[in-house]
């Protein structure tokens, strides 16, 4: 039985911005205006707001769920929110703004198709804004929304919005975004101006509201900022689990479960299992609801091959037409996320797809200055939140694409082999020179 259920169009987005820019209030406003919260939640927020002496509900309380977040008035961890409009469904990663939690921003934005970057109209583009924009550029986020928040708190709102928008446009152009990939919107998350309803308080602005833009922006599944013209890669399917039920009903069944990281899987397609290099053909693409005629990027399925070949967890089933060459030495662009600095010669673990292997950091080749958009010479170490270019050597072959052609199959993590903590988020290839305008030896 073949089934191809039509799923509603989904947009994955994230928020970013500095502390007190109003991210939690904006996310709460999005949930409230799209009727994605229950009545008892609204009642609880209203009561808590009255207890604090506020004249209107503090919608940030809808999303700052941790007690530490509520007490400090800041977002600490990444939280995923789900909401929908008649035209589209959304998964939103609400990320922290404090520089200490830049690692969480990297995590939340790594799979985003669009990021809403907030700035406080009273402060404009600040150091953390530039840092977040640089990180989002390295991650290849295809589209940005600049939400100039608290626009109701400045005297000359029109001049302020124009000035901040122009400065941000210059920044994003230098980082590689095309002008039509960035939308600036003046908003007041507290009052709801230009979030769901066009505001009469911003006559100088004639563009879409935030929700209108989110509903209409094109969804890019594999489009990448740093190499938007690249030809999309074929099937990339990291095997997560080998299914062999060996029951009376399925005595000879052997399937390979995982998620399509790139391309599509269709019966009849010729594939190669890497790193072994064994060739076969896809016989079926199974799901609990039946077989599919095709499985696209992001779909979790079980692939059944026509031949009885040796496939294990960590292997990658790829399209025979453009199979990548497995490598054990490659260049990586990483954002260091640990308090202890990274130095050349460090022995860590590298997690790529479903495979984890030992890795040695051969050398630190460059350091990225996100404020000046310059690449500087080889540093002695990488400290917390610093972005650099490194050479890596793995104990086992890695089946990876350049991040510029496949975000999912071109990304990896560096892990502490002792404690298991994530130490760095990495991209395969040199992403630094592609987004910076100045290179300093």
State the main characteristics.
Elongation Factor Tu (Ef-tu), domain 3, 441 residues, Rossmann fold, 7 helices, 3 domains, single chain, six-stranded antiparallel barrel, 23 strands
Describe the structure in your own words.
It is a single chain. With 441 residues, the protein is α+β, with helices and mostly antiparallel strands. It folds into three domains: 10-221, P-loop containing nucleotide triphosphate hydrolases (Rossmann fold, 3-Layer(aba) Sandwich), CATH 3.40.50; 236-322, Translation factors (Elongation Factor Tu (Ef-tu), domain 3, Beta Barrel), CATH 2.40.30; 327-439, Elongation Factor Tu (Ef-tu), domain 3, CATH 2.40.30. The protein is 17% helix and 33% strand. It contains seven helices and 23 strands. A six-stranded mixed β-sheet has the order 2-3-1-4-5-6, sandwiched between helices. Strand 5 (143-149), helix 6 (157-175) and strand 6 (182-186) form a beta-alpha-beta unit. The chain is globular, with a radius of gyration of 23 Å. The N and C termini lie far apart (61 Å). Residues 1-6, 66-76 and 223-228 have low confidence and may be disordered.
Topology:
Elements lengths: L9 E8 L5 H11 L5 H13 L15 H6 L6 E7 L2 E7 L7 H8 L4 E7 L6 H12 L4 E7 L7 H19 L6 E5 L23 H7 L19 E8 L11 E5 L4 E2 L4 E5 L3 E10 L2 E2 L3 E2 L3 E6 L10 E4 L7 E10 L10 E6 L2 E15 L4 E3 L10 E12 L12 E5 L6 E7 L9 E2 L2
Parallel strand pairs: 1-3, 1-4, 4-5, 5-6, 19-23
Antiparallel strand pairs: 2-3, 7-8, 7-15, 8-14, 9-13, 10-11, 10-15, 11-12, 11-14, 16-20, 16-22, 17-18, 17-21, 18-19, 18-20, 21-22
């Amino acid at each position: 039985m073949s089934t191809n259920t039509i799923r509603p169009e989904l947009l994955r987005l994230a928020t970013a911005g500095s502390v007190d820019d109003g991210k939690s209030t904006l996310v709460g406003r999005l949930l409230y205006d799209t009727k994605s919260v229950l009545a008892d939640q609204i009642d609880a927020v209203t009561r808590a707001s009255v207890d604090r002496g506020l004249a209107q509900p503090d919608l940030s309380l809808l999303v700052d769920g941790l007690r530490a977040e509520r007490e400090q008035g800041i977002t600490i961890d990444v939280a995923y929110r789900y909401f929908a409009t008649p035209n589209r469904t959304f998964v939103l990663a609400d990320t922290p703004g404090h520089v200490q939690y830049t690692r969480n921003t990297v995590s939340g934005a790594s799979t985003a198709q669009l990021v809403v970057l907030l700035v406080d109209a009273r402060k404009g583009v600040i150091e953390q804004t530039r840092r977040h924009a640089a990180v989002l550029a390295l991650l290849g986020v295809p589209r940005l929304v600049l939400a100039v928040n608290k626009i109701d708190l400045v005297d000359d709102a029109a001049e302020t919005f124009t000035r901040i928008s122009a400065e941000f446009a210059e920044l994003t152009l230098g980082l590689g975004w095309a002008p039509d990939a960035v939308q600036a919107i003046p908003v007041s998350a507290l009052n709801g101006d230009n979030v769901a309803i066009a505001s009469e308080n911003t006559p100088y602005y004639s563009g879409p509201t935030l929700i209108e833009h989110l509903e209409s922006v094109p969804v890019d599944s594999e489009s990448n900022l740093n190499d938007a013209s690249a030809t999309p890669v074929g099937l990339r399917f990291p095997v997560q689990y080998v299914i062999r039920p060996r029951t009376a009903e399925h005595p000879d069944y052997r399937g390979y479960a995982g998620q399509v990281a790139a391309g599509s899987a269709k019966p009849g397609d010729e594939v190669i299992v890497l790193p072994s290099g064994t060739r076969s053909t896809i016989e079926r693409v199974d799901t609990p609801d039946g077989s599919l005629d095709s499985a696209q990027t992001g779909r979790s399925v079980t692939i059944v091959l026509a031949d009885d070949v040796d496939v294990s967890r960590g292997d990658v089933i790829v399209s025979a037409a453009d199979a990548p060459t497995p490598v054990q030495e490659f260049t990586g662009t990483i954002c260091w996320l640990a308090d202890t600095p990274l130095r050349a010669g460090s022995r860590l673990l590298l997690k790529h797809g479903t495979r984890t292997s030992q890795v040695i950091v051969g050398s630190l080749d460059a350091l990225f200055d996100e404020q000046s958009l310059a690449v500087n010479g080889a540093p002695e170490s990488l400290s917390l939140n610093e972005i650099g270019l490194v050479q890596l050597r793995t104990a086992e072959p890695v089946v990876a694409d350049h991040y510029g052609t496949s975000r999912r199959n071109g990304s990896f993590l560096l892990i502490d082999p002792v404690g298991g903590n994530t130490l760095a988020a990495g991209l395969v290839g040199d992403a630094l020179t592609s987004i910076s305008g100045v290179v300093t030896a």
